[in-house]
Design a protein that fits this description.
Blueprint: E1 9-13, H1 20-31, E2 34-37, H2 38-51, H3 59-67, E3 71-73, E4 79-81, E5 84-85, H4 93-103, H5 106-122, E6 126-130, H6 133-137, E7 143-148, H7 151-164, H8 171-187, E8 200-203, H9 209-223
Parallel strand pairs: 1-6, 1-7, 2-6, 7-8
Antiparallel strand pairs: 3-4, 4-5
Amino acid sequence: MLQDKCYPKIAIDGPAGAGKSTVAREVARRLQIKYLDTGAMYRAITLKVIRENTDLNNSAALQEILSRTDVQINDDNKVFLDGEEVTVEIRLPQVNKMVSPVSCISAVRLKMVAIQQAIVMQSKGIIMEGRDIASRVMPDADFKLFLDASVEERARRRMNEQQDKGIMMSAGEVTREIAARDRIDSTREDSPLIVVPEAIVIDTTAMAFEEVVDDIIRIVREGLSCSGNG
């Protein structure tokens, strides 16, 4: 049963490059609910680890960093690390390479999940995307979706995204990076990337952006008892 008939809680999970962020942002706009990119929060922590050249095997050092780290995302989806806006910097290649290993660390996930769940509690309706939203962060979500696509298609999208930002990477580099992230995300001990039994899986490989958004809007509207959203 929906917790709030007109302001749903929507969980979107999926691997890197599946289109979660762009799709979730547009769905949130059309449904007029809050959008939260949880991956950006892990990227912010990763950026700090890189800046301080922290050894990921040094648990004491990691705990010390986490104790003095503040990550915030405002209503415009700008990301702030200890008060500094890092929205662009967290998308750089060096962060891409390190974000999965950092995200595997239980202490990091514990801190981020606590922040994310607090945001859920404060939000009337929300769409969150990441890798453990339905399984851990928001297991009571009204709608649980899993976006996927072939490795080749996800690599193509990520390469185009990087090129738009002036970052040049070869198709081989991007494909290897995504394959490595898939392996780490799906095999980590703490909150691995999984498809929960009740999730609706959407393969976006051959779908246009608008088609994916429309599909999700349809799923949500069919599950809502009120009108006027979208």
